[in-house]
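Practice problem: predict the structure.
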Amino acid sequence: MPEQSSTPLVLDPAASDHHAEHQALRDRGPATRVDLLGLTVWSVTDPALLKQLLTSTQVSKDGRAHWPAYADTVSTWPLALWIAVESMFTAYGGDHRRLRRMVAPALSARRVQDLRPTVETIVTTLLDDLEARPAGESVDLREHFAYPLPIAVLGRLMGIADSQLQGFRNVVDGVFDTTATAVQAAENTASLYKALDDLIAAKRAEPADDMTSLLIAARDHEGDGGGFTDGELRDTLLLMISAGYETTVNVTDQAVTALLTDPEQLSHLRAGRATWDDVVEETLRHEPALKHLPLRYALTDIALPDGRTIPRGEAILASYAAANRHPDWHGPTADRFDVTRLNKDHLAFGHGVHFCLGAPLARMEVATALRLLFTRFPDIELAVPAGELRTLPTAIGNGHRTLPVRPRRTTGEPAR
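Answer:
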């Protein structure tokens, strides 16, 4: 029987040992009360229950409408931005369908496919820069490869000038920081919205063939069903930038780490027993970009499989990383990274109506980056022991602070 406790499990804001924490969550049953930065919510780790809740009309993401504690929480909680934004991320029912319908064309299959040559060019340029470094020199692959790729892609997709990209990166980093105080988070939010307002003004003055201009056109459209409100436009741009940047960085980071710490997995790829798409999916299962995703709200009492109840009006935390490694889903080897695993199903992109629209783009970016990286540098290796890699100090994101590697072309042959 799972260990049940009326005392909430306090989640570590710095996530110093997230694997142990996720096991502790699973040990407490399909759902358990946790303390997330001073807020008591229900963490759901059972994959079957989580899928049920993610598709239920009795669970909402609209805290303004469906969470009695919203007003008291939003002014003081460090993660207030996650619940206060006005976009499809926090919308429910008809509002969610309206917003998603307007965003979908900007991430269509055609646009993603059209971006493939751009992604390959960006990756090749980044690899050229790595190859130009002195032979044997250690380089932080997260900083010099995993970060600049999605930032450059977002710049192309959204029409953000290169000179503005670093500024967006700095403030988006703050969105995922669960060690920040409420004051620090509020200051970061103000800076972020200033950058978004400047982008909207520039694109409204000079529209182009990019996502930002398309969304502005949808905002200004007065046809059937209307367009975005000003707040929805700004927060939709925020969603596109934050969802398309930090998450892709983390998946690239975790995939490279897994391959460099387990030579057997690379041998599967080189022998044709697995593909780069397999690597991406197993990474998404094994180390998803986001550990937990705030928040959802119960519209009615929700009966749990173990006899307990999530009361109406209480908040729910989707604990994707813990669910992805649940033994009921992936058996006794759930904790093992295995690119040949037949069932790589996961919840890294969510489930149901809120499934991530940017998933095809993220998958394409990471698979392209990995394929070209390991082709150019087949003998790339970690520059520090794996045990010295330090995870990001956040309960939300899931990556490393740095990823030091030596990008060698072939054994005994220095990089050019």
